[in-house]
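A quick aside before the break. I want you to see a complete sequence-to-structure record at least once, exactly as it would be stored in a machine-readable document. Don't worry about memorizing anything.
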Amino acid sequence: MTKVSRQRKCLVTGETLPASKLIRFVAGPDGTIVPDVAAKLPGRGCWLRADRKVVEEAIKKKVFLRVGRQLMKNVKNDVEELEEEDGKKQKENIKVGDALVDQIEELLHKRALDYVGLANRAGNLIAGFEKVRSAFHGGKSTILLTASDAAENGLSKVCQGLPNLRVIDCFTRDELSQAAGLSNAVHIALLPGGITTSLLREISRFEGLRKKVF
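That is the input. The structure line, written in C-alpha cells, reads:
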C-alpha cells in the first residue's frame, strides 16, 4: 500500500501541499519563531511553502504575528492566559529574527547534506567518473549529483549522450566529499531507493530557500 503523505496548508499562498514541500514553524518559550525543518518539535505549528519568496512575504505581511495566539498555546506549562496585564494581545510577544530566512536556508543545507551521508551509507551513491558513466548508460541511475565548482569539461563528458539526465549542482566539492565520506566527490550517481527519495525531497526544499545569485 502506498503511504499517503500528510497535507498541510501554506499560510501565505493558501495551497494545500504535502508536508514534505513545506516548512513548519513553532514558537519558542519566549515567543521567538523557530523553523522546525524536521517537523518534530512539540507545540502548535504553522506551515509555509519551502520557497524563499514565500517566507519573505510571510515576514513582510506579519503572518507569524497573526497566528501568534495559536502558536503560543501549550508552549510552556504555565502559559494559560492569552492576554497580558496591560491588555495587549499575546501575539505581540511573537518575535521574528532578522535572519530567519537565512537561518532556514542554513538548516536545510545541513539537512540535505546529512541525507547525502545517509544515502552513501545505504549504498545508494556511486562515485568515480567511469563508475558513474557506467551507471547512467546501464540504466541504473538518471540523477547526477555534481559539485557546483566542478570543471565544465568534466561535467560535459559525464553528461555526453545522456539528454534526459537530471543534474543537481547545489553543493561544492568539499561539501559533497565531507558529507559522503569520500576523498574527492565531484560526480555522484544517485541510485533509486527510499533514502534517495528523501534526499531529493530535502534538496528540493533547500533549493527553494537558496539565495539566488545573479
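Two observations worth writing down. The radius of gyration is 21 Å. Helices lie at 52-60, 63-66, 68-72, 100-121, 129-137, 152-159, 173-180, 194-209. We'll return to this after the break.
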